[in-house]
Design goal:
The structure is a homodimer. Chain A has about 325 residues and is of the alpha/beta class. Chain A is built from 13 helices and 12 strands. Chain A has 3 domains: about 45 residues, no CATH class; about 120 residues, 3-Layer(aba) Sandwich (Rossmann fold); about 120 residues, Rossmann fold (3-Layer(aba) Sandwich). Chain A has a 6-stranded parallel β-sheet with strand order 2-1-3-4-5-11, with helices on both faces. The first copy, chain A, has a 6-stranded mixed β-sheet with strand order 7-6-8-9-10-12, with helices on both faces. At the A-B interface, helix 4, helix 5, strand 2, helix 6 and helix 11 of A face helix 4, helix 5, strand 2, helix 6 and helix 11 of B. The structure holds a DNA duplex (16 and 16 nucleotides).
Chain lengths: ~325, ~325
DNA sequence: GTGAAAGCGCTAACAC
DNA sequence: GTGTTAGCGCTTTCAC
């Protein structure tokens, strides 16, 4: 493996100049710069990131912490982060907490000293712990907002309102909300937005694990609640609700309308295709990575709230007669 | 941030002893070991991975290269890798090639000098390039086999045979195969297994992008081919085929039976639920990580081929009359 | 604009 | 067993 030293020798310059030519091109004369670049190219030089990190005190790595990599929501965000990071010649260290707060804490502690910045995606930790982490190094929170910290989140409230307006326009008057994990900030946001809507009766059937199985479990509660429509915490849960409804002989949207959240790929290709509040997931990954790059301890931490969009597909339709009561 | 130096001072030992206490506990007296561990704990010591890597010459990081993180297949493998790596106190650097060979090459070159080992998942590169990479450092190939290299793959042939036997038992005589990317090793494996089966006419309708959209495009070819059943490269493609079949007014499995590959979560919760060849993806991630750990340049590189299983759900049924010709 | 030299935090001989 | 010493490959003052 060729080292910077080798490149320097090959180019007939000092290691310092070689280093500058690569990282501060402007501070080196054109001629030497070219000699160095050429030598680096020719020798197939690859910087040793560990040495760079050790010497400079800052790692180029980005740490990405997600609750569940196998969840398409996080996988999509991760893809966005990864592509943006690559553009900036940085690598991404991903860690999966398995939806466990203890694991999350540990991972953050482990990761933070070894990365240049941390992307906390849907963190389940209490706010003060997140703030502690941010005090130790650059942190951007994704899909959650923490006062005083940089974050990228979604305009959930307007999504909820659009979904509810859509249902009301279809004649629904009683809709069930199937929630997500109690530790989820975005679930709290959805709930908060629910209470703000008039003309519609909302029954909260409780929180579920944010995966398909959670929806399956919730479907029976929805039926028992006598709702003609359901808004789910996310698409996975919505899909679970639909599956169970179907299994119990109910038609979607004939008997019950279903709306999800996120617009994961599967939402478009299940049948009936799922009406859902689409979140710009990949873009969130991009934005978060960009924010992290430009984070300035002095300045007011930037907060970006991405717009969402109701995508109406085939899982919502005119209200049927109430199932009961 | 507390350094090993700090810990050593606090424990009243030399840095070397502190280092040993943490990485080679057996080589330090019980008393000092405890003093060091206690001090480390108390100071919240976190090893600087960059320094470790630089000093020891080997990084603890595992580099994971996948074609598409948003593809549930790879996301699931990644989750397996990640969980196993964490158990071994190693971090995972993921990189997404976007199914592009050039990007893959670049990423491997970038990543390799900075990780302790590389996990190449479904690499699209030619064999000799993969072998070159393996010559430069520990490499385990996942979902592909390369002569002379360590790999974790799946017993695809027996999966294909099980699928075909299932279809034949249902009375099908003409089945279409919808392939994946031409650069895909596992697609070649599937094709090879197809030719080995008698009593069944196989029509190859060509390769597609290994995602939902690929299946949608292929469905019309399937219909035109007059097949009563289709075996798809993977579940995503199978789902795409089903969606298009449905859109064209054909029933699954009434008119056409569909079988996928992989058993991604969505396979179970679409309707009709997809019959598919299940691959132990998480386990593959585990095994690959374990192999990487134990890789010994001297020894014969280990090859593990994981068993697969046909999961029969609702997308396959008795053969209908041929659609045409 | 350029080079010499120090040192980031850690591990690994090497002596004791 | 334990401490001393010398780097790993790079960045970064600091002089020139």
């Amino acid at each position: 493996m060729a080292t910077l030293q080798d490149v320097a020798v090959a180019a007939g310059v000092s290691p310092a100049t070689a280093s500058r030519a690569l990282s501060t091109p402007a501070s080196v004369s054109m001629e030497r710069r070219h000699r160095v670049l050429e030598a680096a190219e020719r020798l197939g030089y690859r910087p040793n990131r560990s040495a760079q990190a050790l010497a400079s005190g800052r790692s180029g790595h980005i740490g990405l912490v997600v609750p569940d990599l196998a969840n398409p929501f996080f996988a999509t965000v991760a893809k966005g982060v990864q592509s943006q990071a690559r553009g900036a010649h940085r690598s991404v260290l991903v860690a999966d907490t398995d939806e466990d707060v203890r694991a999350e804490r540990e991972i953050v502690d482990d990761l933070q000293p070894n990365v240049g910045g941390l992307l906390l995606c849907s963190p389940r930790m209490p706010e003060d712990e997140i703030r502690d982490a941010a005090a130790r190094g650059p942190v951007v929170v994704v899909n959650r907002e923490v006062a005083g910290l940089a974050s990228v989140s979604f305009d959930v409230a307007s999504g909820v309102h659009a979904a509810l307006a859509h249902l009301r326009a279809l004649g629904h008057t009683r809709v069930a909300y199937v929630g997500g994990p109690s530790t989820s900030w975005s679930d709290a946001r959805r709930r908060a937005a629910l209470t703000e809507v008039a003309g519609l009766e909302i029954v909260d059937v409780g929180g579920q694990r944010p995966i398909h199985q959670g929806g399956v479990a919730a479907a029976d509660l929805v039926i028992a609640a006598g709702a003609t429509a359901v808004l789910a915490y996310n698409d996975l849960v919505a899909l679970g609700v639909m599956a169970r409804l179907h299994a119990r002989g109910l038609s979607v949207p004939g008997d019950v309308s279903v709306i999800g959240f996120d617009d994961i790929p599967a939402a478009a290709y299940v049948s009936p295709a799922l009406t859902t509040v689409a979140l710009p997931l990949t873009r969130a990954g991009h934005e978060a990575t960009t924010l992290l790059d430009g984070l300035d301890a002095a300045a007011e931490p930037p907060t970006v709230r991405l717009p969402v969009e109701l995508v109406v597909r085939d899982s919502t339709g005119p209200a049927a007669l109430p199932l009961k009561g």
